[in-house]
Design brief:
4-stranded antiparallel beta sheet; mainly beta; globular
Length: about 130
């Protein structure tokens, strides 16, 4: 079992920055890949970013590329999402997720993740 807890959300003005954290417990985080997803009101949940177990590889949705950075500290069992130059359209509930069992499917797909955090609200004001 893996428990994931997000933190760092809140209200930020457009153009500002915010850093989300996802603390994992229950299993050593270096054993699994991690992802961030988000769900805006009235929309489906969508992929934001993902990072490999060792943090060597990462990928991003086109909508956040160049503005968001994912990273991890396996010694702290924590994954981060640094959000810069935020826009009102970044407003959403952000979820972190863990993929414990390897899958050949892309990390951009929700179905490869077995564990999810409860989500945290990010609101960007214009």
């Amino acid at each position: 079992q893996v428990q994931l807890v997000e933190s760092g959300g809140g209200l930020v003005q457009a153009g500002g920055s915010l850093r989300l954290s996802c603390a994992a417990s229950g299993r050593t985080s270096s054993n699994y890949a991690m992802g961030w997803f988000r769900q805006a009101p009235g929309k489906d949940r969508e992929f934001v970013s993902a990072i490999s177990r060792a943090g060597v590889r990462s990928n991003y949705a086109d909508s956040v590329k160049g503005r968001f950075t994912i990273s991890r500290d396996n010694a702290k069992n924590t994954v981060y999402l640094q959000m810069n130059s935020v826009k009102p359209e970044d407003t959403a509930i952000y979820y972190c997720a863990a993929r414990v069992t390897y899958s050949s499917d892309s990390l951009t797909s929700e179905r490869v993740y077995e564990y999810w955090g409860q989500g945290i609200q990010v609101t960007v004001s214009s």
